[in-house]
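Thread: "does anyone have the structure for this chain?"

Original post by V.I.:
We have the sequence but no experimental structure in hand. Need at least a predicted one for the grant figures.
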Amino acid sequence: MPFNPYQHPLHRMMRAMRGPRRRGGEDEALARGRKFGADDLQLLLLALISEKSCHGYELIKELASRSNGYYSPSPGVIYPALVHLEEAGQVTVASHGKRKCYSLADAGRERLAIHREHVELTLAKLVHIGRKMELARRAYAGEEIGEDGAAGWTRELIEARRALKHALLLRDQAGPDEQRRIAAILQRAAAEIAAARKPEDMHESRT
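Reply from O.Q.:
Generated one for you, tokens below.
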């Protein structure tokens, strides 16, 4: 069974100290194995199939790989979704012995184009939760984090994210004008980060 820091006694103790929290966090939901909705799962499968034709088991392995083993749907989840995509004409199927190979059809390509931004964000979340879990695993194991960072994140990025969270916490009681000022800063930063993204950034963590 893969390491899951959310089941670690230290994590449960920290949750008890924090008290009640809002449910529905996406990272924790994935780490606990909560299923995607039917639409999201279908879009994920279409996105993977658009990269290369593959069998159902290969899709399961690819989802597990991108999430570093923390999201590995069962065949009982994957194959009904593939049947639905086939019946909707969004994938085509070729039989290779007892196995079926799925390829993207024009209808599936059109659906992906409509939801491209959402699909990219969902795939990025899969990678993100896997990297977070790897960082937590190494921390719980007492492993030293090198100068190049942990789980692919540099120390500079980790420290910058921590500084941002701290700054926002200190402004938690800010009035409307200050909130709008902060929102404008964050929107500019988000736009700059998104504009600088290169296509290979979506794949370099898997190479």
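V.I.: this helps a lot. Residues 2 and 69 are 7 Å apart (CA to CA).
O.Q.: and The first helix runs from residue 9 to 18.
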